[in-house]
């Protein structure tokens, strides 16, 4: 197992998926349709490959926690529903791997909270992502009663943080200083 090789693979694949020229939702409707008809959404194909390779790592997955949390988060925040549905479960697998090794998933939790703040501030994330994140992780947790309560607490924490971050991002363009201050206090 060559850790550096796999690390390079995952980082390169995520960099490919997140490059500006592939963010189809930013294009006009006509350009979007033309690209979709000719090439399809390459982000999904590469995202599915990342997912498949992640699950083939076996016991080596732990080597990528917490280092791959940020890149995977960046990938799951792309506003493409099928990509999100396919890749958000990787987070549960990361939690499960760390839990099985240490009895908790504190490294994963700290990293995702840190990276989520950065990504939402950068304009990524939306209500739909928050709902999908919650439903997928809670559904995955149902299959593992020993970790279910921890996952539910984690999801509640992340959902609350994401709500506040999205509110903060919205009111930053608001004229009212009171609204911005109130939102800032809630976030803190």
Automatic annotation (TrEMBL):
UniProt xrefs under InterPro entries: DOCK (IPR026791), TPR_DOCK (IPR056372)
Native source organism of the sequence: Piaya cayana (Common squirrel cuckoo)
PANTHER family assigned to the protein according to its UniProt record, in alphabetical order: DEDICATOR OF CYTOKINESIS, DEDICATOR OF CYTOKINESIS PROTEIN 2
Pfam families per the UniProt record, alphabetical: TPR_DOCK
UniProt GO MF annotations: guanyl-nucleotide exchange factor activity; small GTPase binding
Any one GO cellular component localisation term in the record: cytoplasm
Signal peptide: none
Transmembrane segments: none
Lineage: Eukaryota, Metazoa, Chordata, Craniata, Vertebrata
Domain called Dedicator of cytokinesis TPR repeats region: residue spans: 1-136
Name used for this protein in its record: DOCK2 protein
A single GO BP: cell migration
């Amino acid at each position: 197992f060559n850790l550096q090789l796999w690390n390079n693979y995952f980082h390169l694949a995520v960099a490919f998926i997140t490059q500006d020229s592939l963010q189809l939702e930013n294009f006009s409707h006509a350009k979007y349709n033309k690209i979709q008809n000719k090439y399809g959404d390459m982000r999904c194909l590469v995202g599915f490959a990342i997912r498949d390779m992640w699950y083939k790592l076996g016991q080596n997955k732990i080597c990528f926690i917490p280092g791959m949390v940020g890149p995977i988060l960046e990938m799951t925040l792309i506003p493409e529903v099928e990509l999100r549905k396919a890749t958000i479960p990787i987070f549960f697998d990361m939690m499960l791997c760390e839990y099985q090794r240490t009895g908790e998933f504190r490294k994963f939790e700290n990293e995702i909270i840190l990276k989520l703040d950065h990504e939402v501030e950068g304009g990524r994330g939306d209500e739909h992502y928050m709902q999908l994140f919650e439903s997928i992780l809670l559904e995955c947790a149902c299959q593992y009663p020993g970790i279910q309560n921890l996952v539910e607490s984690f999801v509640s924490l992340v959902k609350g943080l994401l709500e506040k971050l999205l509110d903060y991002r919205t009111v930053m363009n608001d004229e009212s200083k009171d609204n911005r201050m109130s939102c800032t206090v809630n976030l803190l």
